[in-house]
Amino acid sequence: MRRIVLIALLWLQACTSTGPISPIGPGAQSFALNGRVSVKHGEETFSGSLDWAADVRRDELLFSNPLGQGVASLTRSSSGVTLTPAGKQAIYAETADELTEKVLGFRLPLAGLRFWVQGLPDPARPFESTVSDTGGITQLRQDSWVIDYLQYRENRPRKIHVTRDGLEIRLVIDEWQAN
Hints:
Elements (H helix, E strand, L loop, with lengths): L1 H11 L18 E11 L2 E11 L4 E6 L5 E8 L2 E6 L5 E3 L2 H9 L8 H4 L11 E4 L5 E6 L2 E9 L2 E9 L2 E12 L1
Antiparallel strand pairs: 1-2, 1-11, 2-3, 3-4, 4-5, 5-6, 7-8, 8-9, 9-10, 10-11
Helix pairs in contact: 1-2
């Protein structure tokens, strides 16, 4: 269970590159979202809620269990990435890739999520996409990940399904806030 929570947090950390952030609305340089996430890897599963505040300099993610108790927090700043499981010692690394290697024993290519939750590909890497008749992305393929956009609300992704190598992540975004 602990491993699947760490995988989920590290996957969600994907977005926290130190490069420029693509806005979710005209002129937006940061965002906050609240939602629910479920992660399945083999027989391990986790579900809970996610609060994510992001801007150019910092990301703060709080993962809670279905009862609302904080499970772990993850922070990215210019000094690195810190994962703090509830009641445990913080784990630090300079990059998300290093953190995944420390925690999981292997590196995950995690750089795209900041863009993916906004319905956009990471502009720094190649991608393929499928677009609906109305012009919205319905599926994105990047870095061997398949990102399916199952529902939009007010032109922002609401339900996202991400898969790769037996890892399945579902994200339902209940509230967006562009800052």
